[in-house]
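Lecture 7, part B: from sequences to assemblies.

Below are the input chains for today's worked example.
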Amino acid sequence: MNAPVHFDSISDAYATPLDQIDVSNPRLFQDDVYYPYFERLRREDPVHYRKDGLYGSFWSVTKFKDIMTVETHPEIYSSDAKLGGITITDRPMEFRRSSFISMDPPRHDEQRKVVSPIVAPGNLNNMSSVIRERVCTVLDGLPRGETFDWVERVSIALTTLMLTTLFDFPLEDRAKLTYWSDCATADVNAGGIVDSEHKRLEILGEALRTFTGLWHERAARPAGFDLISMLAHSEATKDLVNDPAEFLGNLVLLIVGGNDTTRNSMSGGLWALCKHPAEYQKLRDNPSLIPNMVPEIIRWQSPIVHMRRTAVVDAELGGKQIKAGDKVVMWYISGNRDADSIDRPDDFIIDRARPRHHLSFGFGVHRCVGNRLAEMQLIILWEEIVKRFPRIELMAEPKRIYSNFIHGIAEMKVRIPT
Amino acid sequence: MPKITYIEHNGTAHEIDVPVGKTVMQGAVDNNVPGIDADCGGECACATCHVYIDAAWLDRIGLPATGSNEASMLSFAAVTQPDSRLSCQIDVTAALNGLVVRMPEGQH
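Predicted structure of the full complex, as structure tokens:
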């Protein structure tokens, strides 16, 4: 029997010729070994060109400030779906679906403004009590002294319930939302059920049919305060249902945006605390740190690994010449560890100063519309956790997903001591 | 030093001396005035330093130019009013001594 080979990612990151480094390899994230590759790029070649990589040829933007430059110049760096959209994967043209995240101003602006009131401050206050009730129910149902999967029992359970509220979706069918979300973002090489774009479209076709039904119901009723009703009753989007590709694009955006990211921060936060016992103790000693800790968790997890743009004109970025048509990838997960913009970036510090100065939500016109809802859910979760459980133990390293887009935790075994 | 009054949504007022050359946002953040988040750090890229300019000051401060980054980011902020500005885009000068700004219900 062969002894297990220990893979030394630091040696590999520094021994690989610079032009051969390919940070798009989903294995780097699945195996949690991506850190030194980005560290080297930030130091030696912060705007890095990889020719003919696993996901084609692309620029990697690895430093906080350069990412901010790309984010704030949509007239240079386009999100347009037809040019390739927002992910490093170049889907065949017939599978490129528009949604407001993969549009540029001004159309982006019109569609985004339709849904943003659902996460406005007043409505967040309205939602907080129902979120707290659910958190309490889920936490009170957890076993003591027994190993269980935190992802399934807590992170998925809570974020799926949140989606049912946002869409006013039938509660009994809620598992479908999680399934569609996972299928929408699955890498076709991950070895899962979605092994081709055709298969993905077949599964998402069911989502489209279901939501088309809900749309017609809601359009026939007075305007309500759920995402589908808001889209159906707004001038800018009232005909969206007649453009199935764009309707599906927006559904996927809202489902994934409201689900995967918060789910993985719910898992990643507990992982971070278990790995940093002194910080976990700080939290137990002073639960009032929770609102400060939550953005630090979101930075630490970086739930979206990257966002992609496509240059529409020639431009200079970090001393490099970007040509019109080039694929430009902003690695949020790297910018969030940039010591030139974040103090002690490799330390998880729950009482860090200015914790919201991170890239996980993006910046500029595409900044995450649900960022304050995400924070609120995590704040409530941690407030209720510390009231109940003095500690939660990590029983095994988490299993991570094969993706360079969603920084996902598939399973995390934990135990609450009796 | 110019004195700026920041009024939280709940009515709590904070009178702060802000050095010339700073922005109205920095005056709040440097002095831990709650209600201005400034997630992006002053890049006009997040709209979480949103304030309402007191009516007496609106003419002097002015509104963001149509088509500017500030106008664009503000258009995505919640609870905006005709007197809304992003405080990171207002430079503090001696002429702003006495400025009053109010914070919205939340930064988003």
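Note for the exam: Chain A touches chain B through 25 residues (CB under 8 Å). Keep this in mind when comparing with the next example.
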